[in-house]
Specification:
Elements lengths: L1 E2 L5 H11 L11 H4 L5 E11 L1 H12 L9 E4 L10 E7 L4 E12 L7 E8 L5 E11 L5 E12 L2 H5 L1 H25 L2
Antiparallel strand pairs: 1-5, 2-8, 3-4, 4-5, 5-6, 6-7, 7-8
């Protein structure tokens, strides 16, 4: 949904309620893992800390959606769970307009026995300008104890405006990956 101005809290809540019954905008859950040829695959990663304490802070930061604390991108509701099935709205302030996009948390990464990887993926709903999936993951290297944050996305435009503005969309996607990494670095510094 494209908007001329920032939507009110009530409008965002209505959008989330309406989004809960919508299907995904693509067919196969797991496209970010499997890299189908008709989707653009993007990845970014970087070291954000060191040691088990930093890894636990990184896990908490992902649970709290701190990787979305960018100023021009916001997640709603603010306290959203990362449990599969949770519906969220991503509010983006583009250059001169806003967009509100529905997503659903699809699966988690890692398990209770795996203390080296943690993350989740969400997929786009039919009211999102794009179609695809993003994986957000933190990991710790057993040897060096470096803590890394990574994003892996599979996407393609869905809405007409997204097709028309595809070069700009690609710039914004790259900006999101860079700034999300910086947000996770900040989150680890403030989660002490």
């Amino acid at each position: 949904m494209f908007l001329a101005r920032r939507p009110s809290a009530r409008k965002i809540e209505e959008f989330i309620q309406d989004s809960q019954s919508l299907p995904l905008s693509y067919d196969q859950i797991g496209v970010a893992k499997h890299s189908p040829s008709d989707f653009k695959i993007d990845q970014a990663s970087g070291v954000i800390g060191r040691g088990k304490t930093a890894f636990e802070r990184a896990r908490l930061a992902l649970r709290e959606w701190r990787h979305f604390e960018l100023g021009w991108v916001e997640i709603f509701p603010k306290n959203a769970s990362i449990e599969p099935g949770t519906t969220v709205a991503v509010l983006i302030h583009h250059f001169w307009f806003w967009s509100l996009n529905g997503c659903r948390v699809l699966y988690e990464l890692g398990d209770r026995l795996d203390d080296t990887n943690f993350g989740f993926a969400y997929g786009t709903l039919t009211n999102h300008a794009e179609m695809g999936e993003e994986i957000f993951q933190v990991s710790i290297s057993p040897g060096s104890e470096e803590v890394s944050y990574s994003i892996r996305a599979a996407s393609k435009p869905r809405a007409a405006l997204a097709w028309i503005g595809y070069p700009i969309t690609r710039i914004l996607q790259a900006r999101f990956r860079r700034e999300s990494l910086a947000a996770m670095q900040r989150a680890l510094k403030t989660n002490k």
